């Protein structure tokens, strides 16, 4: 076959058009997720199952922490943000500045596990007051030994591990324990990667740290739970461990909390994103427990689906960050009831 210059040009143009079309298809079917390392195992499990059903839709998932994820999300860089706490005022402002509207969707409950090395025979339990004494800002450089926490504990150094300050887990822990979100001592080993924290605690007999209990469940042979005694609890349960059952029955307080995904309205207008989110809130329910978290009651999932279907904007928590001691069911039910009169008045 005689190949002319014109034939080569036409062929190159055709190939270019085809490649451009292929890139457009891939871009249209790519769902970008980033954010919390705590929520990551759920989103990863859901994405794997979803892509078996819809192989032409690709879901990419990053782990930059809840705060880092919101920065990307509110700058329009991602479609969905994994979050282990509700959105904060500064993040609400950033989204508003960039005209990013969003829908908040709770997906599970999590317990924050407090852990030590398996050889630790003394710190089998701690009160919330003792945790505060250890983690509050005033403790930095002062509370450095175990016997400063409780008389009778060994006169040995204490080595602290925890999520980085961009983590929603860090925010919730400080709100629940110290009493002020994003407020703690700074002299601890911090990482946005929970696997780094697992390794740190598992190799240090004098370590104490905290992170989402799913990572404990996957590493329970290397770590030991510390029972948490919420002295304010009316039921007087004493020390309670971070287990699935104790999060479900509400006795693990105040370190149990809901976790979320946030979907931009621009992304929610795309069919593949709607399909993925609905799969997440329906078929994803049994996967929540499989990866070590606590599934929401079906009634709550139904309210969350209703929130997504009706494109209810903003946060049910008012855009003010972590709140301790409130229930999703009461907040979502109140929100749904508040919308009913408005819906009946529509023509």
Key descriptive features of the protein:
disordered N terminus, 9-stranded mixed beta sheet, 11 strands, 14 helices, alpha/beta, single chain, globular, disordered C terminus
Summarize the structure.
The chain has 347 residues and is of the alpha/beta class.
SSE inventory with pairings:
Layout: H1 5-28, E1 30-35, H2 40-53, E2 58-61, H3 65-74, E3 80-83, H4 89-97, E4 102-116, E5 125-127, H5 128-135, E6 159-163, H6 168-178, E7 189-191, H7 194-202, E8 207-212, H8 213-217, E9 224-225, E10 227-229, H9 244-248, E11 256-264, H10 265-268, H11 271-282, H12 285-290, H13 298-309, H14 328-345
Parallel strand pairs: 1-2, 1-3, 5-10, 6-7, 6-8
Antiparallel strand pairs: 3-11, 4-8, 4-9, 4-11
Helix pairs in contact: 3-4, 13-14
Descriptive notes:
The structure is a single chain. By secondary structure, the protein is α/β, with parallel strands linked by helices. Helices cover 42% and strands 17% of the residues. It has helices at 5-28, 40-53, 65-74, 89-97, 128-135, 168-178, 194-202, 213-217, 244-248, 265-268, 271-282, 285-290, 298-309, 328-345; strands at residues 30-35, 58-61, 80-83, 102-116, 125-127, 159-163, 189-191, 207-212, 224-225, 227-229, 256-264. The chain is globular, with a radius of gyration of 23 Å.
